[in-house]
Predict the structure.
Amino acid sequence: MKRIVTLLVLAAAVMGSSTLALAQNEAAAGKNVYQFCVKGENGQNVSLEKYAGKALLIVNTATKCGFTPQYEELESLYQDYRDKGFEILDFPCNQFGEQAPGSYEEIHAFCTGKYNISFPQFEKIDVNGEHADPLFVYLKSQKGFQGFNTKDRIGKFLDNRFRKQDPNYDQNPDIKWNFTKFLVDKEGNVVERFEPTATAADIEVKLKEIL
């Protein structure tokens, strides 16, 4: 528990200001996810247009987080729906308590070795602040913070901690922690955002609606 508190304090330092978020949101207006390129294995450019016609779940991840075991749930979801036109796009991010250390190769080896993931994994990025990847700037502009599940013990703890730091923290669209997920339909539109405390069952319900 003490470790979680320490990491949440560190997280406060990486939250972008509301002014910066507004400027980024304006820059992202009028797009869909297919207009973005990201860095894949070995740093090559990957256009998200290659995923046109598929439902996507885009997630910022970490390998040393309390939510890291969600990789197992994500892989299970992927196996159940990949043949129906579903892809998970995994973006490691080290902004939250430095919980995604290591190179792409080290992160990928960990995820494939421990959780047997088979969905695409991309280069490490920032999701908040002035160096935030444009894809995540766009995603946040489309779906703001949805609130932690306060019926869940961890969700209630997270909400209390963030609210003590900023009573209006939930008004800022920035990513709050690892394993925030965005669901994108087959036309490239962001249709839902899931905070880290959302369950795989929550995601599956919405996924079925767009497949």
Q: What stands out?
A: Confidence is low (pLDDT under 50) at residues 2-28. The beta strands are 37-39, 45-47, 55-61, 86-92, 181-184, 190-194.
